[in-house]
Structure formats: structure tokens, C-alpha cells
Amino acid sequence: MIAGIINPDLKKYNGEMVSEMAAAEKKPELDALFDFILADQAQTGALYFMASEQDLQYGLKTALDFDRLGRKRNSARRSLIRAIRPSSCVRFEGTFFADIT
48 vs 12, 22, 23, 55, 75, CA distance in Å? Predict the structure, then answer.
């Protein structure tokens, strides 16, 4: 995705994919890309996507199942342990974590 354009004449392509910009310019993608880079004095930024949509959806669904330390969440059990054994909490970077293992 094209991002961070310096040339004001090319700002209309900010946020577009190279394929969309090439189609608008009616050029092959590689030719359009190099023409764009030259016109923007090689100062163009880009965003790269390295995960599939399926992987992102899976990650978003499962991210809520784990806490910051990568442990499986079980909030009811953790709350019960804190209520019964508050001394089992260890201090870690200003936050108290219950030892539930």
C-alpha cells in the first residue's frame, strides 16, 4: 500500500495499492511503480501486509483467550485464587499476578 507521499501531485494515491494506482495510470504495475518512485524522488513510503485475512481473523478470535503472559485465561478461577490466597500473588512490573499453575 502506498503511504507517505512527498509530491503533492501524487497525494491522490495515498492509501491505495500499487495495482490500483497502475490501473488509474493505465500502465503495467512495474512501470507504474517505477514511474511513481521517480516522480516522488524515491521518498515514497509503503505499508506491507504479511498475514492472510484468515490468520488475522483467527488471531483476533483467540487473542482474548490469553493474558499478557501468554497463559490461558480463566478469570473465574483467577478471581477465586486471589480471594482465597492473596499472598500467592507475585509482583511483576507494578502489576500483581496470581500464581494459578
Answer: 19, 17, 20, 15, 36
Global pTM?
0.51
Between CA 2 and CA 83 the distance in angstroms is 52
Choose between 39 and 50: higher pLDDT: 39
Which residue is it, cell 507517505? 4
The amino acid at residue 94 is: G
Judging by beta carbons within 10 Å of its beta carbon (0-12, 13-18, 19+), is residue 67 exposed, middle or buried?
Answer: middle
> ∠ at Cα 96 (84, 85), nearest 5°?
15
In sequence order, the β-bridge partners of residue 66 are: 72
